Structures are given as structure tokens and as C-alpha cells.
């Protein structure tokens, strides 16, 4: 058996089976034969490209080029496949041997350590990084023992992110997500006891690469509506062993670093999609996240979390954590005890037929994803659901409120504030019966029919600047059942509007003041609507959904059924009308002949009468008889003409009716043909979008916390924070017991530098600690590497 001399290959040989090692060596020898033939030609003076063309096919040229330089520099061993399986858990005995050897010989190299471990028959051998890590532990102990003071300087291209890390230390927003993923990991391991996940190795080559067959298998089959790789996360999870995802086997430190990357990624992503993280700015996240992961790694994590059903749980954990922070920091007593419920639809630009809804900021109905938010009076998003297409609030309002209040784990019932969707009879009646407070504006279309009653002494009173408020009682009637409901009404007269704003509320019946209830409603704009606008800064208005499955388009199916019934009825009418055509035509022909005979008879009688008059016969029986016959013929002609006109009109009306039916049938057939392809419609899978919503909400809340706690002297929006604070450069100085974060002054923005100094004072007073070190903050002019001489206060 071939014994390698390279350190890397020694470790590889210890990690894999004897059979696999022999196969790799044999493959390398086959490759060497080809490269030797090329090398001989090159040595004889032939150009490399020409030599490659003569030895291998054109399609193999790139294969040769990838190996040529390594083979030329290192020889045969460069051709041996050096990939290794997942790093095995380092036994405590192995770690002890490494540390003991390093303590005995401080100049011991990694290669020397591997030789020692092989001599002591440790198998498999640890990687170079593991050995270096154990060496570092020993070196740190030795340096501490000698009393040497260490200092390390780390450049911070995005030093403003240190404010978010400080907010994370105080709130634990990202750690809450990490803990939830850890809980998922533990549940997956328990559920997978006794089962081993099946690796996806079918139709791959010996190196694990995708083949043409693999890609062909993933294509949509003729009998499939959606390709296998575009199935929903729930469908992909079917039949899998729960412990299959990679995150199940990763450490907490690794999971936290990846989730930090997901949280901070939108702050540096200038474009949409994963490839935005390939921009140079993304590398600046490494000092903040621990490692600047590539898009493919984060995409795999997100996909695995989606298949594991992590989205709703992460959203719930976000709500729980930030509600706790809001209670501890700012409180939610009195009028703050409110829930603001609303939908936020984000458009999906697609040529495919997908579930649609009203996208407000575009004022159009189109494919979309609807996210439902429940904000507290402190602006904390407590509960959120993500759905494909439109998602009306009215049928789900009670469930959403119950879910949100369940997160409080208390007995306080919050006042619910919702837009005009809540002004339905059933919702208002249910809130009234349950003793819950709701405030909702009346739909403008229902304003004219509203019956208002005013108590004695009721009139418009001053409310806010240039506004007036009046309290009344409204009587609502259910249209189908006739049930009635008396509910409080707040009329707000606003100077810039022609009509009054009418707010319906159950709060008046429970002793709340009209002014407080109106304040609750008008607070929705700064608390919730502005939150939707702020969310655009971190891409909260961008969707991340794939085509999950095909579902029946209820609206189209209903319309097709209505069209089919209409076609059947009109077709029946058309057949019935068609049977009347011939009788009407025969009747018209009969009337026409009668009319023609009457006209000829009248002409004959008129000639006879005119002849008698022309001969001077102006009296006598013959003239009288001729006049009577002419009069009778004239009457018959008029009657026949009217009958002919009536029959002609009947036939024309009949033909018009037939043409109308045929036109209607043609339009219905055209409409049916137009919407028939939309009978089955795509429903976007929102499992990944739910995960991104949780991470983006975490980013928003961290920024909001930093603005509120650290930068109160300089109010700004989220977008301003990202552009003027997050991008500030600086550096971090690490010492054994202390850590200093230095923000470099921006000469172009002295106001922000002053605000940062104030923030540093606030942060230093909190005595934050990270990795066992006291963290301090300062703002100084950038002096390059001279910062190594910074003294701690």
C-alpha cells in the first residue's frame, strides 16, 4: 500500500477506509500516465496547448489544466484526491497528547505532531486546524504564565455594526434565534434515534459532482405539474430522517455565526438575491459575524431550516424575545397596552399564474406574498404569519389576537387596533360579547347608512391641533339576519379633510375615554405603518418564495362554473329561438303575399275609379260602387301593410336576439378559453420567506434598540443608520482582560461623530462584557497602525 509523505495525505489516509485509499491512489496513477505523456512532449519543446490537444480530447483540456501546475510542482501526490469526510470529534486523549507534546517541545511542528500520533496509533488523525488549535491553547497558557501582555488589532470595515453587537449583548436577539435552532437540532436527534439519513449520492460521479443524469432526473416529468426541486418544504420533508440537515451536527458557535450573517446580510446587500453577498462589502462582516460565509453556505442553511419547519417557530421566538426587552426597557402600561394588526403585501413579479392579492403601494392586484404583523404599543412585532397571495384579516383576527396574547403569558387583554377590515358586523359583535376593546375605522361605503345617536350635551370638542372629536352611539344591522348592535362611535373632524373620520369602538362601553381610544388609532401610523416603511431598508418588502405546489384557483373555478351555467342557459335559449325562425319566416312570407295582393287589388280598383272619373262619370250607381270597392281595397291594403310590418319586425327582433345570444356565447367561450389555464394556480412556498422575515425583523429591532438606547441625541431612520453609522470604519483592540472598539472619525460628518461620542459614553457606563473581556468604546481620528499604542481607561 502506498504510504504518502505529504502531511495532508497522511491525515486523509487515516480518515478513510483502506479500499477508498487504494482507489484514490489507483486513480492518481491513471491520471499520472496521461500527465507524463504531456510532460514528455513539453520537455521535447512542444507547446503545452498543442501537447494537450494531441494527448486528450478537447473536452478534457480543462481537467488537465486544473492538475498540471500542482503535478509539475509537487509530483504524483498532488494527483491524489485529498478530500476528507466531516471532521471527527477529537477525543480527550488525543487532545491531551497534543498539548503534552507541545508543552514538552514549544517548537514542535504540525508534521512532527502527526508523526507522534501515528507512532502512538491514533486513528483517525486530527486535521491541521485541530492540532493548531490545541497548540494555541498551550501557547496561551504559557504566555499567561510568563505574565506577558498580549494585544491584537482587528480592522473593522463596518465598525458601526459594533453598536448592533452591543445591542445583541443586551437583548440576545440573535442568540434567541440560535437557541431555537438548537432546540430544533435536539428534537431532530431525538426523533432520529436508530435511523441514519440516506446520503444524496445517486447519479453523482466518484467525486460527488452532479452529472447530466442527476440534472435530468430533477427536471419536470410530463405527468408532473411542478419539478421535484421546486416542491414545497413540507413535501421535501416527507420521508426524510429528521437529522439529515447539516445544522443538526454543527456547534452552537457555528450556528450563531451563520445566523449573524443572515441578520446582517441585508445591511450590505445592494441587490436582491444571494449573489449580493459576493460584493466586496460583504467581506467586511467577518469581524462582526466571526466568518464571512459564502452565499451557497447560507442558502443551504436556510433551505434546511425551511424543510425543518423553523419559520413559524423563529417568528414566535422573535416576538417573545423582543416583547421581553420592551417590557424590561420601556414598559407597556396604560395606553401602551395595545395590539396593532395589519397586512403587508410584497409583490412577486412573475409571468406564471400565481396566487394574487392587492399590493397597496403599487395599487394593483398581482401575485404577492402577504405577511401579517401584530405590533404592540411599543412597536414590537409579536406575531407574524406569511402566506401566499392575499390573506384577509377578518376571518383570522380572533386567532391572531389569541396567538399574540399567548406570548405575553399574562392576564392583560390588549386593545386591538385594525384598519377598515375590522368594521364588519361579526367582528364587532364578537369583540363586544367577549368584553374586548377594538378600534377600527368605518368603511367609507357604509358611512351614508350609519345611524348615529348623540347624548345630551354632545358636541365637537378640541382634539389635538386643529382637530375636533365628538362621541356618539352607532346602530349597526346585519343585512342577512337582521341582528342589531349598538356600538360606540368617535367622529374626528380633521381640518385637511372634507368628511369626518368615523371610528367604531367597543371601548366606550368598558369605561375608556374617547380621547384615549382615538389616540390608540392614530398611533398606528408611527408604530406600525412607519415600521413597514423602515423594513424596506433591510429588504423586508422583498420576497423569498419558490413555487411550492399547484392548487385549485377557487376564484377561477367559481367563474368557470358560472360561465358553464350561463353557456348552458344561453345555448338552450338559442336552440329555442332557432326553432322559431322558420315559422316566423313562413308567417312573414304569407303576410308579404297578402300585402302584395292587397296592393294589386287596390291598384286595379284605383284605375277603374280613375277611368270613370276621366270619362266624366261623376254620378250614378257604377261610380258609387267603384268608389266603395276602392275604399274597401284601400282599407285591406293598409291592414295587410301593417301585418307585413309587424311580421317583418318580429323576424328582425328574432334575428337580433339570436345574434345577441351568439355574441354572448362567443364572449363566454373566449373568456372560458382565456382563464381555463388558470384553473390550477401556483402557490408560493413561503417557508424560506418566514425565516428571512424573522432574521430581518431581528436586524430591525437591533437597529431600533441601538437608536433608542445609544443614539437618542441624533434621531434618524433605519436607512440613515445603515448609510451613515453602520458603514463607519474603525478597529478593535483585544487584550487578555479588555477589549476596545474604536470608531474612526468622519471629517465629513462631525454631527455623527459627536453622536457617536455620546453613544460611547452610554455604552461604557453599562460595563458590557464579551468573551470574558470588558468592552469599552471610543471615537478617535484614524491614525493607521499607531492605534496599537491606545491606552485603556
Q: Which tags fit this structure?
A:
793 residues, alpha+beta, eleven-stranded mixed beta sheet
Describe this structure in words.
The protein is an alpha+beta fold and 793 residues long. Helix content is 50%, strand content 15%. It has 25 helices and 18 strands. The strands form three sheets. Strands 2, 3, 4, 5, 6, 7, 8, 9, 10, 11 and 12 form an eleven-stranded mixed β-sheet that branches. The protein has a five-stranded mixed β-sheet with strand order 1-15-16-18-17. The protein has a two-stranded antiparallel ribbon with strand order 13-14. A hairpin with a 4-residue loop joins strand 3 (356-359) and strand 4. Helix 12 (252-264) packs across helix 23 (687-709) and helix 15 runs parallel beside helix 23 (687-709). The longest helix is centred in the last third of the chain and has 55 residues, at 621-675. The radius of gyration is 42 Å and the shape is flat. The chain starts with 6 loop residues before the first helix and ends in a 13-residue tail after the last strand.
Amino acid at each position: 500500500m502506498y504510504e504518502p509523505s505529504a502531511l495532508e495525505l497522511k491525515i486523509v489516509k487515516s480518515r478513510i477506509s483502506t479500499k477508498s485509499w487504494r482507489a484514490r491512489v489507483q486513480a492518481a496513477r491513471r491520471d499520472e500516465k496521461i500527465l507524463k505523456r504531456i510532460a514528455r512532449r513539453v520537455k521535447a519543446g512542444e507547446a503545452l496547448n498543442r501537447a494537450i490537444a494531441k494527448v486528450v480530447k478537447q473536452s478534457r483540456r480543462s481537467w488537465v489544466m486544473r492538475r498540471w501546475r500542482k503535478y509539475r510542482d509537487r509530483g504524483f501526490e498532488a494527483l491524489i484526491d485529498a478530500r476528507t469526510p466531516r471532521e471527527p470529534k477529537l477525543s480527550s486523549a488525543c487532545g491531551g497528547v497534543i498539548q503534552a507534546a507541545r508543552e514538552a517541545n514549544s517548537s514542535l511542528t504540525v508534521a512532527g505532531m502527526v508523526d507522534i500520533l501515528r507512532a502512538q496509533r491514533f486513528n483517525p488523525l486530527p486535521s491541521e486546524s485541530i492540532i493548531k488549535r490545541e497548540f494555541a491553547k498551550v501557547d496561551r497558557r504559557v504566555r499567561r504564565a510568563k505574565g506577558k501582555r498580549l494585544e491584537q488589532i482587528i480592522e473593522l470595515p463596518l465598525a458601526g455594526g459594533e453598536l448592533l453587537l452591543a445591542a445583541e449583548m443586551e437583548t440576545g436577539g440573535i442568540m434567541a434565534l440560535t437557541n431555537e435552532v438548537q432546540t430544533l437540532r435536539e428534537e431532530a436527534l431525538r426523533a432520529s434515534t436508530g435511523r441514519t439519513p440516506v446520503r444524496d449520492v445517486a447519479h453523482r460521479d466518484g467525486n460527488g459532482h452532479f452529472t447530466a443524469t442527476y440534472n435530468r432526473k430533477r427536471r419536470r416529468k410530463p405527468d408532473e405539474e411542478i419539478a421535484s426541486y421546486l416542491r414545497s418544504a413540507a413535501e421535501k420533508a416527507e420521508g426524510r430522517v429528521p437529522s439529515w440537515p447539516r445544522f443538526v451536527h454543527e456547534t452552537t458557535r457555528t450556528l450563531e455565526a451563520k445566523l449573524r450573517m443572515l441578520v446582517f446580510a441585508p445591511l450590505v446587500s445592494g441587490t436582491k438575491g444571494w449573489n449580493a453577498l459576493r460584493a466586496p462589502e460583504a467581506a467586511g462582516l467577518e469581524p462582526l459575524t466571526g466568518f464571512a460565509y459564502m452565499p451557497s453556505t447560507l442558502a443551504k442553511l436556510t433551505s434546511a431550516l425551511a424543510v425543518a419547519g423553523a419559520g413559524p417557530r423563529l417568528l414566535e421566538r422573535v416576538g417573545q424575545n423582543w416583547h421581553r426587552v420592551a417590557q424590561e426597557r420601556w414598559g407597556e402600561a396604560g395606553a401602551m397596552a395595545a395590539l396593532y394588526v395589519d397586512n403587508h403585501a410584497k409583490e412577486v413579479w412573475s409571468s406564471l399564474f400565481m396566487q394574487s392579492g392587492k399590493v397597496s403601494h403599487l395599487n394593483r392586484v398581482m401575485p404577492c406574498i402577504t405577511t401579517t404583523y401584530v405590533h404592540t404599543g411599543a412597536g414590537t412585532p409579536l406575531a407574524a404569519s406569511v402566506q401566499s397571495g392575499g390573506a384577509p384579516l377578518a376571518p383570522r383576527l380572533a386567532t391572531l389576537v389569541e396567538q399574540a396574547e399567548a406570548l405575553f403569558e399574562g392576564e392583560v387583554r390588549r386593545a386591538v387596533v385594525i384598519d377598515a377590515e375590522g368594521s364588519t358586523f361579526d367582528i364587532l359583535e364578537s369583540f363586544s360579547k367577549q368584553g374586548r376593546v377594538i378600534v377600527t375605522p368605518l368603511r367609507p361605503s357604509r358611512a351614508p347608512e350609519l345611524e348615529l345617536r348623540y347624548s345630551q350635551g354632545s358636541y365637537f370638542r378640541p382634539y389635538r391641533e386643529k382637530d375636533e372629536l365628538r362621541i356618539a352611539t352607532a346602530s349597526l344591522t346585519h343585512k342577512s339576519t337582521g341582528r342589531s348592535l349598538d356600538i360606540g362611535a368617535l367622529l374626528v373632524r380633521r381640518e385637511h379633510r372634507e368628511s369626518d373620520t368615523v371610528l367604531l369602538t367597543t371601548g366606550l362601553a368598558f369605561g375608556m375615554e374617547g380621547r384615549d381610544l382615538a389616540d390608540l388609532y392614530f398611533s398606528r401610523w408611527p408604530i406600525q405603518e412607519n415600521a413597514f416603511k423602515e423594513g424596506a431598508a433591510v429588504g423586508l418588502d422583498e420576497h423569498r418564495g419558490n413555487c411550492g405546489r399547484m392548487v385549485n384557483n377557487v376564484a377561477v373555478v367559481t367563474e368557470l362554473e358560472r360561465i358553464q351555467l350561463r353557456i348552458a342557459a344561453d345555448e338552450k335559449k338559442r336552440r329555442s329561438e332557432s326553432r322559431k325562425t322558420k315559422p316566423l319566416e313562413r308567417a312573414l312570407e304569407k303576410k308579404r303575399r297578402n300585402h302584395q295582393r292587397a296592393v294589386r287589388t287596390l291598384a286595379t280598383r284605383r284605375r277603374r275609379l280613375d277611368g270613370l272619373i276621366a270619362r266624366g262619370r261623376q254620378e250614378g250607381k257604377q261610380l258609387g260602387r267603384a268608389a266603395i270597392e276602392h275604399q274597401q281595397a284601400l282599407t285591406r291594403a293598409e291592414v295587410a301593410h301593417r301585418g307585413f310590418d309587424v311580421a317583418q319586425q318580429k323576424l328582425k327582433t328574432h334575428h337580433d336576439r339570436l345574434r345577441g345570444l351568439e355574441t354572448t356565447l362567443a364572449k363566454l367561450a373566449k373568456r372560458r378559453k382565456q382563464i381555463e389555464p388558470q384553473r390550477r394556480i401556483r402557490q408560493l412556498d413561503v417557508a424560506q420567506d418566514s425565516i428571512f422575515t424573522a432574521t430581518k425583523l431581528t436586524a430591525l429591532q437591533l437597529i431600533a434598540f441601538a437608536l433608542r438606547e445609544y443614539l437618542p441625541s441624533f434621531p434618524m431612520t433605519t436607512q440613515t443608520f445603515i448609510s451613515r453609522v453602520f458603514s463607519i470604519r474603525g478597529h478593535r483592540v483585544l487584550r487578555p482582560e479588555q477589549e476596545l472598539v474604536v470608531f474612526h472619525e468622519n471629517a465629513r460628518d462631525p454631527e455623527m461623530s459627536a453622536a457617536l461620542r455620546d453613544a460611547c459614553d452610554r455604552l461604557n457606563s453599562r460595563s458590557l462584557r464579551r468573551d470574558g473581556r470588558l468592552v469599552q468604546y471610543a471615537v478617535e481620528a484614524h491614525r493607521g497602525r499607531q492605534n496599537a499604542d491606545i491606552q485603556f481607561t
